[in-house]
Specification:
The complex is a heterodimer of chains A (623) and B (92). Chain A is an alpha/beta fold and 623 residues long. In chain A, 30% of the residues lie in helices and 23% in strands. In chain A, helix 9 links the parallel strand 10 and strand 11. Chain B has 92 residues and is an all-alpha fold. Classes of the chains: A alpha/beta (623), B mainly alpha (92).
Amino acid sequence: MAVTIANTSARLAATGCLTAFGDAAQTHAALLAGRIALQLSPVLGNAGDDLVPLALCPGRSFDEAAPPNWLAQLRPLIASIPGNNWGGPRHPIFVTSSNFGVGSLYAFRRTGDPVHLRYGTPSTCVAWLGGELGWGPHVTTVSHACVSAHLGLLQAARALHAGLADEALVFSFDFLSPFVAGGFHALKILNAGFPAPYQDRPIGSIGLGDGAAFAVLTRDRGDFALLGQSVHNEMHHFTANQADGAGFATCLAALAPLAQNRRLWLKGHGTGTIEAGRLEASALAKQFPGAPLVSWKGSLGHTLGSCGAVELALAVESLRTGRTPGTVGSGAPGFNDSIAFDPFDNTRFDTVLCASNAFGGAHAALLLAPAPNAAAPSVTASSSDPVSSRVSASSPHASVALAPTLELFIESAFSDDAGAEESAVTRERLKEIFPKLASRRMTQLGLVLGHTLLQLSPGEHDVLVYASEYAETRALEGYLDSFPTASPTLFQTSIHPSAVQQALIGRQQPVREFFPLTGRADLVVRALQTASLAHAPRAIVCGGEERGTWLLERGTASVRTFGFSLALTREKSAHATGRIALSPAPDAASGALSLPDFFDAIHERRPLDVIAAPGVRLTLDWS
Amino acid sequence: MTDPLVDRLKSLLVDALKLEGVTPAEIPDDEPLIGAGLNLDSIDALELVVRLEKEFGIKISNSEESRTALASITSLAAFVRERADPARLSTT
């Protein structure tokens, strides 16, 4: 599969992280000393529960408070982020997480206290957090399980290249709760058999950890550089990878040209699940023979959507100090000889590859190195990249006053307005579209969205952007109702971006890049911006919501079910049926375009000309 | 004469895994539950494990143990008889 990685390099002006050990320096020192943060803890926080390995920040209660008790933990980390005006028009933020405030939904279900609902959805949680921290409105929220942070880094780099930002902040946070521990326990991959095993043990266990991190990306400042980033989504199975490791290999191969003639050490994902660990170690050793491989999740636990940013900050700390912690929390023998168990001097290397993987066979990797003293990474990409070319012609390096107009052409559009249709009716209407094994587990949102998406025949070269505020509401409700014996299927299905994965995994259809976004008022704009910055012949933007039941009664779910999919190109073709343009508008101009309103315009083929987000005017015209 | 526990397990399978168009009687006693035949996968296996915990008070702590238990309906029935809370088993 051809994989391009244009527009993914950037400088790192600053990084930092928070783990159960403390900040990046404290965590790095603890890892060098071989300390293990994971401790056996009751899975739902109650005496008598099964014990599972968790690494919580000291002093933080496992169950959620209102407001969430992790805010106090985050404040010192946030105070260490250089600069201000974050969330301003030239300083966008990419918030990445898998959990957001979902522990608050569990707290609501357990206590019935509606105060918890204010923090329970990704959009309300990020809005609350942004208010607490004084962020401006230019925030893109990304949620793709354990590759979330990598996607934020990729988007931030592209925003810099396109001249949409002077600096970009990637901010990631994931704090554990009974919601997530119960779910992983239901998947039978949390047990007391940690530390994580390697080849001499028949039973696996991962650990989970609190984690948060940030990275400030710039075009031309900073001691470290992201040389390139790659992603790949094999869409093979929700919890398994292709048995031959092809998904890992595809992602890594994309970085191989950039890694040529470099001396690498490798920071693997290394959750400790036996099969994924074996495949990852094998793929890394094959692509980068002789490079030592380390993993730190056996100590810190898996920090989920934040792991890519947390481990990036620790890799930077390793480069800064010249010492790389070995694989902690896992006993030898390893899957192969490349796994380093002892700390080592990294000054004989010049580059680090950091990899992460996620449910659904999602793979992400990046190359990190000390920044060269020579010129900064060029803003201008290849001449085949119209967005970057256009920006470089105007003003690439300065604090550009206005962002460029981004233009996308609609090749095809499909929509399904299920409204208040009962789930069972939707199932009867659409189930034949999907393979039987897939359809019996599909949610109403998965069916409706998949119905529109598959009409575009997504392919392995496509970039896919998915927008949903509430996403898998019914699965979320069902999962919460299943406690204390949590349902593994509903846990899996409740995770954003399950609806798209249901459709694509059912067809075993890989896609190159997959950006699941969430948010509220500016979600449409963020999705279209993401699509326009991708470097692919075609981008698909899809979105949808699912009508809730008891969450709807609490105003925490969509009132209707709908889905749409748009095939978009950056060059106008004879087949184009419409045009979407995002152009600068005064930041003070207020306005918003909600996902349901955008859907209605698509469904009815209506034109739009609105202030769709602060500083952004959206026009939609149909041929 | 059919084994009441086997019948109960087959009904539980159809219900827990939402096997549309499959009746309990159509599930063979001695064929693998996961993979072939019913075309079930690892997440089905886990869901079934959870339902066994709820229904019979059985604890299965890892996926490797569940693989043994779910080899077939016959092996599952034997596993349940060996591990189940007797009070819950006697309702069959």
